[in-house]
Design a protein that fits this description.
It is a single chain. By secondary structure, the chain is an alpha+beta fold. The protein contains four helices and nine strands. The strands form two sheets. Strands 1, 2, 3, 4, 5, 8 and 9 form a seven-stranded mixed sheet that branches. It is globular, with a radius of gyration of 17 Å.
Length: 218
């Protein structure tokens, strides 16, 4: 697919002139272990961020830590329960098919229900940092709108198409206690879990090497 906007970056949905290859959040954050399918925190709905939590240093540190873990794992998105935190937060650093880089965070996100006429379903490969290794074909709508709030509690609307829309939907699933493999057939799920067992040690070793690389950038 042609890249119509090479080099464009959108941070929190807004176009910016430039953005570092390694997000500053990742450089500030602590690399935390990513949870793996089967751990209880991944399989229940996360709690909403309370009003008194917005604007706090603790919440800002959480987002920094999520960016650090996402960068080390070479992910396009990460939900808070993927580092063991029961909270409605996810982050992203994701390119779409037009070459646009999307970077940001959202708290208490809600996916809009798309009108039937606006839903175009697309099958594409999808993977998950909490199911390390395999990628499986999965059908999702090719557009998504997420409404939530930023770290300081300001309203936020993020729109995505193509791969970025898939990313937004994938992370929203996590906060509801779901993983992409839950949307597969029973056979597809078994295949994904078998491939994970075959590859997970290789993936973990690569993440450890990336953690050392990130430490060297600080």
């Amino acid at each position: 697919m042609a890249r119509q906007n090479p080099g464009q970056v959108r941070v929190q949905g807004e176009v910016v002139a430039a953005y570092p290859e390694v997000p500053p959040e990742a450089l500030r954050g602590e690399v935390r272990r990513i949870t793996v399918v089967g751990e209880e925190v991944l399989h229940r709905r996360c709690r909403a961020v309370a009003e008194e939590e917005f604007g706090t240093p603790e919440l800002a540190r959480l987002v920094d830590d999520m960016f650090a873990a996402m960068w080390v794992a070479e992910g396009a998105g990460l939900a808070a329960n993927q580092i063991g935190v029961d909270l409605q937060v996810f982050v992203w650093d994701c390119f779409d098919e037009d070459g646009v880089r999307h970077v940001g965070h959202v708290l208490n996100p809600v996916l809009d229900d798309l009108p039937a006429g606006a839903r175009r379903l697309v099958e594409a490969e999808e993977g998950c940092l909490s199911v390390p290794g395999p990628h499986m074909e999965l059908v999702r709508p090719d557009s998504a709108v997420v409404r939530g709030r930023d770290l300081d509690g300001r309203p936020l609307v993020i729109e995505g198409r193509g791969y970025f829309a898939r990313c937004l939907q994938h992370e929203a699933d996590h906060l509801g206690g779901g993983l992409y493999i839950d949307r597969l057939s029973s056979r597809g799920r078994r295949t994904a879990l078998r491939r994970m067992e075959e590859r997970k040690e290789e993936v973990f070793a690569k993440r450890a090497a990336r953690a050392g690389e990130l430490a060297g950038l600080r």
